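Q: Structure for this?
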Amino acid sequence: MRVTAVLLVEDDASIAAPLARSLRREGYDVEAAVDGPTGLEAGLTGRFDVAILDIGLPFMDGLEVCRRLRARLPQLQILLLTARSEEVDFVDGLDAGADDYVAKPFRLAELLARVRAAQRRVAPDRHAAAGVRVDAAARRAYRTVAGGAEEELHLSGKEFDLLRVLVREAGTVVTRQKLLAEVWETSWMGSTKTLDQHISWLRQKLDDDAADPRYITTIRGVGFRFTP
Ligand code: CA
């Protein structure tokens, strides 16, 4: 999965440093800036999914950075941080185009949850497991091959839908009923042969071996589990 890129603009190192560390530990690609203009310049490159902006910043405040980023980047998720003493209220933040707002002092866990929520708004349906990546919006799927390169999988519509559900639920058993309901929009168990046929085609395209699966494990009588 493409890593979510987070821009963190915060001048207070005692907040920025632990926050950047936690975000990196959670798997985000983090770039930090310590003043308004530097943050704005970084943000305008368009390479970020989420921007976390402190409001009280040197040279240009976070609200102005927010306004300027929003004017150019409608898709960017912007989360504002503010201290109570700065007396900037939520409405100012919304007027500036922010998507969310967290008051200092905040608990790290709460902020990370807000970032995850922002990430979901950016990439509602992008999933990856065991080196297989599914981009539902683009309807494309990829597999990491030896050497670390990615190759695109050429799947039929139903094979794609099947893979999307299995990868999304990787690590858990997806029942036959659920797959039939979600992929074929039927609960008719008579179509279970169709399901087995598509699983078989999918395995061929993944070079997977049902007897010694790398990706798709059959749970007899129940369903299938994709390797997490
Ligand atoms: Ca500040």
